[in-house]
Amino acid sequence: MDVQRSITDRFDTCGDYLVRVGEAIGAARTAGLPVIYVVVGFRPGHPEVSPRNKSFSAIAGTGAFAAGDPGAEIHPAVAPRPEDVIVTKRRVSAFAGSDLDLVLGAGGIGHLVLTGIATSGVVLSTVRQAADLDLRLTVLADACLDADPAVHRVLTGKVFPRQADVLTVAEWTKTPAGQESDQDA
C-alpha cells in the first residue's frame, strides 16, 4: 500500500524495504495468491480534497498524486503485473474512497496480508477498518515502513497483534501461503 515514488523517495532505507516487499510479492505469486496494490490518487485539481482535511489539503492544487504525476507511480522495483489489481484510494485507509471491498468480495477474499508505507498511516487505518469488516489479517512488519521507528515498533509489537498476525517477510514466506483456509491477498 502506498509504495509510490513520492512516498518511497522520502526514505533513505527504502532500497532494503523494497527488496522485502518484492520478496513478499514473489511468494504470494508463487503460492497463486492475488496481488492487490493500493495507491493514493486524485482527479486533476484534487476535487476530492477538503480544505478541512489536515493530511491532504497541503497537496490540493499541486498536481501531486493526480493523473500524470510521476510521483504517483508505483515504484518500479515492485511494479505490478497486468494480472494484478490496482485500487485507488482517496484517503488514508485502503478502503476509504476505493472499491477495495468490492474487489475482495468478488474474489471471495477473506484474509489480507498487508504491507505499506506508512505503518502509522495506511497500515494502521487499513488494519482497523479491515478488522471491523471481519477480515483475517496478517501484517508483515518488516514490509511496513514509518518515518518514526519507535511508532513502527509500538504498532507492530503491541497494537497490531490485537487484530492481526504480525510476521516478518521471512516468517511468512516459510509457510505455504497458499494453504490458508480463506483465500488471501
UniProtKB/TrEMBL annotation:
This is Isochorismatase family protein. Transmembrane segments: none annotated. Gene3D superfamilies: Isochorismatase-like. Residues 2-171 form the Isochorismatase-like domain. Keywords: Hydrolase. The keyword Hydrolase applies. It comes from Streptomyces broussonetiae. One of its GO terms (molecular function) is hydrolase activity. CDD domains: cysteine_hydrolases. Pfam families: Isochorismatase (PF00857).
